[in-house]
Amino acid sequence: MVVSVSSELTWHGRGSTKPRAGALGLALSSLNLRYGPGMVHTGAPPLLQGLPTGVDALDRITGCQGLPRGRISRLTGGSASGAFDLGMALAAEVSRSAAVVIIDFSLSLDLGYIEAYRGELDSCWLVRPRKPEEGWAAARALAKAGAALCLLVAEDWHRLTPSAAPTALLTALSEGDCAALLLGGRLIPAALKERISLELECWRLDWALAHGDVCGLRMETQVIRSHWGAPGSSCRMQLHFPRAYQMQVGLEGLAETVPVEDSEAELLQAVGG
Amino acid sequence: MTDEHRKTHLACLTFPHLALVLALRAHPELSGEPVLVGGEGLGGRRVVLAASPAARAKGVIRGQDWRRAGVLCPLAARLEADLAAVAELRQQARLALASCSPLVEWGDDASAYVDLAGSDPVRPEEGARAAQCGRVLKEALGTTPSVGVGPSRFSAWVAAQLAAPGRVRLVPPGQTAEFLATWPVSRLPLPPETTERLMQFGLRTCGDCAAITMVDLQRQFGPDGILLHRLCRGLDTAWIDPWREPPPCGVRRVLAGGVEDSESLRFGAAELARGLAQELARQGRAAGRIRLILRGEDGSQPLASADEKVWWGEVAPPVPMATADELMGPLLSLFSRAYPQAPVGVVELEAFDLVAPPVSQVGLWQGRAANREVIQRAVNRLHDRFGLGLVWRVEVRPGHLGDVPEERLVWSSR
Hints:
The structure holds two protein chains of two kinds.
Chain A: E1 3-5, H1 21-35, E2 40-42, E3 50-51, H2 56-62, E4 67-68, E5 72-77, H3 83-95, E6 100-104, H4 112-116, E7 124-127, H5 132-145, E8 149-153, H6 157-160, H7 165-176, E9 179-183, H8 190-193, E10 196-210, E11 213-226, E12 234-240, E13 250-254, H9 260-270
Parallel strand pairs in A: 1-2, 5-9, 5-10, 6-7, 6-8, 8-9
Antiparallel strand pairs in A: 3-4, 10-11, 11-12, 12-13
Chain B: E1 10-14, H1 18-26, E2 35-40, E3 46-51, H2 53-56, H3 66-72, E4 77-80, H4 83-98, E5 104-106, E6 111-115, H5 126-141, E7 146-150, H6 153-162, E8 168-170, H7 176-180, H8 192-200, H9 206-210, H10 214-221, H11 223-232, E9 249-259, H12 262-267, H13 269-283, E10 286-296, E11 310-315, H14 324-337, E12 344-355, H15 369-386, E13 391-396, H16 405-408, E14 409-412
Parallel strand pairs in B: 2-4, 7-8
Antiparallel strand pairs in B: 1-6, 1-7, 2-3, 5-6, 9-12, 10-11, 10-12, 13-14
């Protein structure tokens, strides 16, 4: 836990508005001595570094060049909105360069998604907890151990979230400089919701077709909560499904000015349709 | 207290006398033959220190006068005990048993008692722990012991007498009196005159005596009657007098004032881990197994359950630990299992199964190997805490193109 202390503290009731440097300094040094250096610092918190998603458009709208490290993010969306596929594609993207931990509370996740989106299974650890506490403990331990992305997948967050778990996870994420991404479930408990720093909502624009087959999904993602920028910014992406005839698999950013029809025409032309 | 209320058990291990073991090791051709091993008894008198089963069948017993034994078994081979070698072998056997439990009582060089209390995630059952004791003792002595497990010292000893070599005999929980019912009174630890009077009364087994009230037994036999009553009903409270050898590597911290709060105890885990890591670094070793021991403030108050003055637990992660960071996880898992019921005065952390520390050449690490190694250590700690099957690695099965994940992918939990 990092406590930020403003340098403009005012002291009332003692006849002076000047901070008592001696007493405050002593208290700060004793806190740093007790809990380690960096426990208390003055001024603004350090600049947050994001975990790149591999899609420039998506990195831009998050405000921190990707998924915020040391924080909890969330991907939401309705049925067939592409939120789940986007989450798996992001995990696959991160797995190509860093370690990914997937906490599968739903116990039904197919890790083949990672492989299908050309991620590296060798960099992935799948946790299937028998009890919710095991899953949260594993998330904390592996985040602290150095995983870059911790993907938490569940359907019913209310049942699975002990009240103290989000705070403890946040501490572990900060220690390990790990980004957490929540996936699945429409409603989440207040204890978890108030710890979320970035919330993205996805919805489907349309399906991409090739050879009479659904080969992808065009989607729009909007920031509905962010600690680093104003909500409302959005971007469009195309998710290329893994198909035998497709060269490109995974996420691709679409320019916001490009109409959907033109994009489809370009795609059909590219694949020879 | 009845044995139903007692949660912990003792293991009694019986084996041939160490002097006889060494004699037969030096003269294997005498195996199965009557052998007498002599030594110096009280007052400088020459007595029988150990006798082989064939010699005991002729009436020779330990401590018997050497000449008398020669008369009883004239064909026996007579050997001299090598007391220095016996002491060395005793030390080896003690250390072997101490690796199984911190509370070991070494008997008369022919038996040993081990407290099976504590927590061992690898062998949660007491029978398995007792069998492990038997295995390590067999490895140290080269001979197979008999093992008995019971809620009291006497019942464990009887179980060991009934067990065949290499076997573990367990006293059924809650049925100690029934288990002892057929045991002859002639083999009770009572004075010979008391045993003789019991025989005169027609009381030949423990079951016969258990049917008589304590008041009647006391009226006839005095204090021996009370002991007889307790032995026959499995109520004897004699516990072991543990022998203790300093561990090869460990740290010990005496707490200023008793600490009862387990949260406060966990707070000191980092300091303990650092201390043990320093000791391991000094020896240039890594620990394959660590043991946490909590002792009461004054040694009189029970710490874990009604009988246990000491709480201890062990953990053996898959990867040897050498640094404080590596020790912290297992150590915290041990602290999380401890719920002291009285103030803790002393905390000890010991390292066992010392091996050379794992070495990684940083310059030769490929890509993210270092990060993966750290994560894999964390996974190992999670497996140690929650069991296998929590964290999975997945690989694509070569040459298989099915759609079902269980068929397409290879799952492994290690």
